[in-house]
Design brief:
There is one protein chain. The chain has about 300 residues and is of the alpha/beta class. It has one domain (about 5-305): Inosine-uridine Nucleoside N-ribohydrolase, Chain A (Alpha-Beta Complex). Helix content is about 35%, strand content about 20%. The protein has twelve helices and nine strands. Helix 5 links the parallel strand 4 (about 125) and strand 5 (about 150-155). Helix 4 crosses helix 5 (about 130-140) and helix 9 (about 205-210) runs antiparallel to helix 10. It is globular, with a radius of gyration of 18 Å.
Length: about 300
């Protein structure tokens, strides 16, 4: 069976880093064409650096493209989340600086070039940060939609309310105009919103199970998850949801998730609902809005993938 071709667009970020480690481990199922980064959890130069750090941690060749994309949202003022992810974006973990020369190719140009080349075998785009790069790429080159089989997004919220305002989830709030453009593109999408990621709470026992795998990569993944828990507990007195890794795990095990077809819009008008996602559930919807998950099995899949790294 041919591997699924994927591109990951991200803003690392503690949970983005874990998502990357899972994707790097799943080489038997996923052909990772490249990584693009965007300003979000921290500034753009830091998300770019962090993606390259995690590429090195995973032992992946520097030949795997990592490209920096948009340094700010389309319209709104920039918003970041250093209060959760730390000033570096990786929770203050002591990790070596990235090796190899940083490419100067823009992430949006990389997306356009790569997706034009995948029209014969469309790729999956996994998005774990603000959708700025995707909106820009689709605006500049609408034909790249033919190179996409689907977009898998961590973002939005409906029944759960928001995590940065009472109505809005951070990734969408950080660039709601971009999210609106992508949701309205008509491209098939799967959405891991807070409605489902809040069912995936990372217990201390789960962190210990990841650490017990023993590889350097698993230990760093455990450190990232533990840092998320510490920061989540200081703010909300609960364990951190497994937000961004849920996208890669949903690719690997879609049978563990249950959703409803929808069309989705985003509130872009200023006010207290700014950044809110509004799913309209209908059979002709091009968006699969996940609402339920087998949490225990998803965590088992996480353990299984991180267990692929050699000790």
């Amino acid at each position: 069976m041919r591997k699924r071709q994927i591109i990951i667009d991200c803003d690392p970020g503690l949970d983005d880093a874990v998502a990357l480690l899972v994707a790097f481990a799943a080489t038997d199922r996923l052909n990772l064409l490249g990584i693009t980064t965007v300003a979000g959890n921290v500034r753009g130069e830091l998300t770019f650096r962090n993606a390259r750090i995690i590429r090195d941690v995973a032992g992946v060749s520097a030949d795997l493209p990592v490209r920096a994309g948009a340094p700010r949202p389309l319209v709104r003022d920039p918003v970041t989340a250093e209060d959760f992810h730390g000033t570096t974006g990786l929770g203050g973990l002591d990790l070596p600086l990235p090796t190899g020369r940083a490419s100067r190719q823009h992430g949006v140009n990389f997306l356009i070039q790569t997706l034009r080349a995948t029209k014969g075998f469309p790729a999956t785009l996994v998005v774990t940060g603000p959708m700025t790069n995707i909106a820009l790429a689709l605006s500049m080159a609408p034909d790249i939609a033919r190179g996409l089989s689907e977009i898998v997004v961590m973002g939005g919220a409906d029944t759960e309310g928001g995590n940065i305002t009472p109505h809005a989830e951070f990734n969408v709030f950080a660039d709601p105009h971009a999210a609106q453009a992508v949701f309205q593109s008509g491209i098939p999408m799967r959405v891991l919103s807070l409605d489902v990621t809040h069912q995936l709470l990372t217990s201390d026992e789960m962190v210990d199970r990841v650490r017990a795998l023993g590889s350097r990569q698993a230990i760093i993944a455990a450190d990232l998850l533990a840092a998320s828990n510490r920061l989540e507990e200081s703010a909300k007195a609960r364990h951190a949801p497994l937000h961004d890794p849920s996208t890669v795990l949903a690719l690997l095990r879609p049978d563990l998730f249950e959703g409803r077809k929808a069309r989705v819009s985003v509130v872009t008008e200023t006010g207290d609902r700014f950044g809110k996602t509004i799913p309209e559930f209908r059979e002709d919807g091009h968006v699969e809005w996940y609402i339920k998950v087998d949490a225990e099995s998803v965590f088992s899949e996480l353990i299984g993938q991180l267990g692929r790294y050699p000790i």
